[in-house]
Amino acid sequence: MTDNPVEIERKFLVAELPSLDGVDSKKIRQGYVTEPSDSVQVRLRQKGKKFFITVKGKGKMMRSERESEIDAATFDRLWPATGDRCIAKTRWTGLLEDGRTFELDLFDDRDLRLVEVEFQSVEEAEAFVPPAWFGEDVTGNPSYSNNVLASGGVGVA
Q: Of 32, 51, 92, 119, which residue is the catalytic one?
């Protein structure tokens, strides 16, 4: 389960891939039970050999998030409810020079690279100066939310 029921993050396009030497990566498969227009998102995610169900509220930089680990059998039973609202990606998790963790997603079905950074407060998020390899800030752009991407948005091949 997530310890903090509120997620504060900023999301960016990637201007130039950084060196990923020594950076951890995991394959992720995720699907959405809810539609992008719903007021709440329900997501199923397989990250490596772990399975999760997540409920997220509306919001851009800050929103509610509740996540619980589930077993593979429960995941498999619920997965058909996602229909074709699914994405697959590789997530690279590493540290920025300032010590913050970044999560870089490279999508399997489209030429899209996104990087996210989570924060403890809105003030910390607003004061963040991204490194040079980050591109355009797309935090407030719903086209780059994973639930919209899972429903066929932004450059599906």
A: 32
